[in-house]
From TrEMBL:
Start and end residues of each stretch annotated as Disordered: 179-205
The UniProt record lists the keyword Hydrolase: yes
Keyword vocabulary terms for this entry: Hydrolase, Magnesium, Manganese, Metal-binding
Name of the protein described by the UniProt record: Nudix hydrolase domain-containing protein
Highest taxon, organism lineage: Eukaryota
Domain Nudix hydrolase residue range list: 31-175
InterPro entries: CoAse (IPR045121), NUDIX_hydrolase-like_dom_sf (IPR015797), NUDIX_hydrolase_dom (IPR000086)
Composition bias type Polar residues, residue spans: 179-194
């Protein structure tokens, strides 16, 4: 892989210097903690790509969902990055924090983003990292898509694919950035609507009646959730050569969507995964998306309010689900 181009270098610099607000992550019981790894690397043009997985059918309600590598915390002392890296080892074969990587690969932890809240009452901390695959001293480089990423555990993932990171700020996928990209701020991109500016984040409310039907890349809708408007994103990533699957691959384990012309299949990235990637891209490129979106990051305020209501307890029950009534009660707390 090529070294990072100037645009990508600046994006990584912003992520390195991002300082998240105080988090409620350590305040919730370990049974409620999870972390995901947003892993970036440079493609042949030096542009950033993000690694995304399709969860295997064996993982119950997550079957077919696009997701970032990650999962539940094991112990109270385990940091979010430790959780995310352990789960990435189990899912995509990325060596853990204490495991060596083949030369010239190294993983740099860049930052953590504000915690997100799943509808199942799990607090998810996004961790952003850069997979270095180029050694500036020796000039040696490698291709993560060939040498490192395709070590899959078929019990946990049905596929691993990658997508252009900057495209998660765009209404249309377009061409990749390249070294001569122009990242001028779109005057119409700061587009929070009505009561969309709030203290909480999306929690899986049904996203119906999509108001952007551009076909091949982005669709979005507004949905009412605890008396506020919430933006639900859907991105459709081309199922191209940057896809690896376990062998043998069983049909039906992945969620694919056809292009309007029926020619190209795409992976659907939506829900919390889409929101986390969008927010990370907002930090990295210092830009707001071209599409409408919620202005805040994460769900830290709502997590704290739910704790005050006695939710997010150490004992997890199969029936744990955040209802609209519960969220409305929490939203009314000062």
């Amino acid at each position: 892989m090529a070294p990072l181009n100037q645009t990508s270098l600046e994006a990584i610099h912003r992520l390195r210097n991002y300082v998240p607000p105080p988090t409620a992550y350590e305040d919730v019981p370990v049974t409620r903690r999870a972390a995901v790894l947003l892993l970036l690397y440079a493609d042949a043009n030096g542009d950033l790509r993000v690694v995304i997985t399709i969860r295997a059918k064996t993982l119950s309600s997550y079957a077919g969902d696009a997701a970032l590598p990650g999962g539940r915390a094991d112990a109270p002392s385990e940091t979010p990055f430790e959780t995310a890296r352990r789960e990435a080892w189990e899912e995509i074969g990325l060596p853990g924090i204490d495991q060596p990587l083949p030369h010239p690969f190294t993983v740099e932890h860049l930052c953590e983003l504000p915690a997100n809240l799943a509808k199942t009452e799990v607090v998810v901390r996004p961790c952003v990292a850069l997979l270095h695959s180029y050694d500036a001293k020796t000039g040696q480089n490698a291709d993560p898509e060939i040498s490192l990423i395709p070590k899959l555990d078929a019990r946990e993932v049905a596929a691993v694919f990658t997508a252009p990171f900057y495209s998660f700020l765009r209404l249309r996928e377009g061409e990749e950035l390249g070294s001569n990209s122009n990242l001028e701020q779109n005057e119409s991109s700061d587009s929070t609507v009505g009561s969309a500016r709030a203290d909480q984040g999306s929690l899986g409310a049904d996203a119906k009646g999509y108001d952007n039907d551009l076909g091949d890349w982005y669709r979005g809708s507004w949905s009412l959730w605890h008396n506020s408007n919430w933006r639900m994103h859907q991105f459709f990533v081309r199922a191209n050569t940057r896809v690896v699957t376990p062998k043998p691959h069983r049909e039906g384990n992945v969620e694919l969507a056809a292009d309007p012309d029926g020619q190209v299949q795409r992976y659907r990235v939506f829900g919390m995964t889409a929101r986390i990637i969008v927010d990370a891209a907002r930090v990295a490129y210092d830009q707001e998306p071209e599409f409408e979106h919620n202005s805040h990051f994460g769900d830290e305020a709502m997590i704290a309010k739910l704790r005050r209501l006695g939710r997010l307890s150490a004992v997890r029950r199969r029936s744990d689900q955040l209802t609209r009534e519960t969220m409305e009660r929490a939203a009314k707390l000062s």
